[in-house]
């Protein structure tokens, strides 16, 4: 590949965040990424820009300054209401070419993970997925990206020296959102979507907002998961009650999903979702390796199981030996409703 | 319909051990398996071929032993396999990998649809599928949970999102990545197993696919791994709570309150 020389490298400045929108609303991961970008921009003595692509989003862009954005680049077009990878890629490439950011950070969401690899390839840039740490090498200004691989069993540090912009995705809840500063302002730049952005695209026929598939495990702070020991679909009711009381999400092992007790969107583990929540409560989950790789990076792991010898009970920070159907209702009684 | 399904051989975690000190999985000595997510891609490709006719070709880049994973796909109905294997491909990141796979897809020729698994379980990046689409300049749909139709010159798919799903129609050729929801992979038949053993698996080198050698391998990769290290260990001890259900509930509640979880 053609590597950058130092002169070219100097043309690229500022740290960009790609705003994440769901149903037209800016998602918290955007604020978290602005927080991370702010620290990097301060280290580089440059600005934080947020690019927002959507429909009817003009007003919402203002809210981003409070979190630390200096400039918000708004592309507002009715054709951007649904997610069309190819259109957003085309816009991103034009904007990157025009404004030359040094670094682009995007949420590792279903949309982000579809969009950014396409942008990276088309603009000949390196991309690192699911970074858990971002820092600047003081020697040359390169971004040092740290990411877990193999279900969190290896931490790799990655750099991209010869290409700009550098690109990274970060999962929701990995970075901490800064406290918003009321009255903080910045610049808004408005750019248009062009006909050529929609040259060759797919047709979105229908969009469904479905609570059944809308299980955003990555966005939860607390996950309470059930396994085979939940005995059936009814068994998950107690987990749902607990989750509702603490504002958490319900997860499941593959065994429970494959038995048809709960939809796939809840599955944690190798063929489900990898989660990194603050608290993970595993109920009657034996802890097959395929499940463990999906949750072992959570900050606090609590396991409840009758059998004290399961792998899950071994890796847990707190292992409760007992019947989840007796213990959990006792606890739920004590928690006030949200 | 000519379908290419891209697969990867990855280390198996089935019989992995947990390190008693770090409480993490010991990676050394693991067997190699077909990436679990790719099994759904293979099954979908085979089902689409059976419904709409045509051919399914499995494609992989990796060391010579990755051939075994290609044979596995043939045992469940894939027509033939192709392996990209050469030292020059070594060290490729997702940019270079998707470039090499895209060049191979061009070389195969007249491909209508490329199907990939959502991601591989070792790297977990989910970048190669969209990367292939970008290199080929084809349309893409990721996190596909159902293929509704594939008649004519387009494919209609259901995509999973955080807040629900959508149905979209893509003119072919296109690249899709699929999630586990999409199907239940079949078990190989005896006939399939025999076919997989007999099948010739050609090995393609960079020259065979007309790859620009400055775009493959370590040199063609914009990202560079500069350091790997074990993650910080989880903890050294497990706090065990035992007793009657009431006692357990009370102790756990105390722990939860201590940490402001409830």
What does this structure look like?
The complex is a heterodimer of chains A (338) and B (262). Chain A has 338 residues and is of the alpha/beta class. Chain A contains 10 helices and 18 strands. In chain A, the strands form 4 sheets. A 7-stranded parallel β-sheet of chain A has the order 7-11-6-1-4-5-12, with helices on both faces. Chain A has a 5-stranded parallel β-sheet with strand order 15-14-16-17-18. In chain A, strand 9 and strand 10 (154-159) form a beta hairpin. In chain A, helix 4 (85-99) packs across helix 5 (110-122) and helix 6 (236-246) runs parallel beside helix 10 (324-334). The longest helix of chain A is centred in the first third of the chain and has 17 residues, at 28-44. With 262 residues, chain B is of the alpha/beta class. Helices cover 28% and strands 29% of the residues of chain B. Chain B contains 6 helices and 15 strands. Chain B has a 9-stranded mixed β-sheet, sandwiched between helices. In chain B, strand 9 and strand 10 form a beta hairpin. In chain B, helix 2 runs antiparallel to helix 5 and helix 3 (94-108) crosses helix 4.
Instruction: Tell me the domain tally of chain B.
Output: 1
Stated plainly, the CATH topology of chain B is called Rossmann fold
Overall radius of gyration of chain A: 22 Å
Structural class of chain A: alpha/beta
N-to-C order of helices and strands of chain B: EEEEEHEHEHEHEEEEHEEEH
Show unreliable segments of chain A.
Answer: none
Q: Name the CATH homologous superfamily of chain B.
A: HUPs
Helix proportion of chain A? 25-40%
CATH class type of the largest domain in chain A? Alpha Beta
Number of DSSP helical runs of chain A: 10
Our estimate of the beta-strand percent of chain A is 25-35%
| Overall average residue pLDDT of chain B | 92
